[in-house]
Amino acid sequence: MQDLQRAIEQTDPPRPPHETLPTMYDLPSENPEEPGLPDEFHYLQPQLLSATLRLANYSADEVFSVGDMNLYYDVRHPTRYKRPDWFAVVSVPRLHNQEDMRLSYVVWQEGVNPFVIVELISPGTEKEDLGETQRGADGITTSEKLDVAERRTKALEERLTALGIDPNEI
What we know:
The protein is an alpha+beta fold. It contains five helices and six strands; from the N terminus they run H-H-E-E-E-E-E-H-E-H-H. It has a domain at 17-30 and 37-122.
């Protein structure tokens, strides 16, 4: 893994994030200090979501859905990630660059935010899942994470509506 604190040469005009920020090959895809799945349902439910996801305007090849994968989302803090129980991204092929399985999903590398994110609530992590805990190591509470997800969902709904697509029919 490359040194993520290296200086990035400034150019005029500035280079795009996918050229200057770490890629999925540079960022960790596992955190050995995080516990595994809390129960069998956390293993089965994301599989069920992926198996049953059908979007009217997208073929299966245009949708990436996965469970328990690191999701890097903040270009200002490139090592900050979340590991949702399941998420789906539209207009992104299943394989990265049509050839590699993804180790992580890196928003600035792909250029597309997740369409939907699911966090399953489990007894052992219920307070954290509901945002009732202190700030995590990344400095963000779960409720703040959900607020970000809700704002992004609202923005996506507005974009779809502007394109003449009813978000409720997808």
